[in-house]
Amino acid sequence: MDKSENKKTGAVLVQGGGIAGIQAALDLANSGFKVYLVERDAAIGGMMTHLDKTFPTGDCATCIVSPKLVECSRNINIEILTMADLVGLEGEPGILKPR
Asked: Which residues does the chain have with pLDDT short of 50?
């Protein structure tokens, strides 16, 4: 088996559209992966969107999360799936199976 046969291909699913899920999706998408960001609520952002200030710096929470929300929604490698629950997952790492 040569290196080209061992190369992983496919897409990545990120469960949860909070600030950590958004950052993970952005990092993966900017690395060239197709990312499916799954969130059970109507919008991404999580609890960070409900905060006024962050600890310990006292930075404005909206000032931190808003640019990431915009970047995530504009990234062509990220598909945001809101109001969605993950009920099953099958396959093997690195193998994209057509339906």
From this structure: 1
Beta pairing partners, 62: none
Helices (H), the chain: 19-30, 61-74
Bin 19: left if φ > 0, else alpha if -120 < ψ < 50, else beta: alpha
CB 38 within 8 A of CB 72: no
60 secondary structure, DSSP code: B
Determine the pLDDT at residue 1.
Answer: 45
Hey, how many other C-beta atoms are within 10 angstroms of the C-beta on 78? 22
Three-state DSSP state, 52: coil
Query: Is the whole-model pTM more than 0.90?
Result: no
| Cβ neighbours for 21, distance < 8 A, ≥ 6 positions apart | 14, 15, 37, 39, 44, 46
CA distance 30 to 35: 10
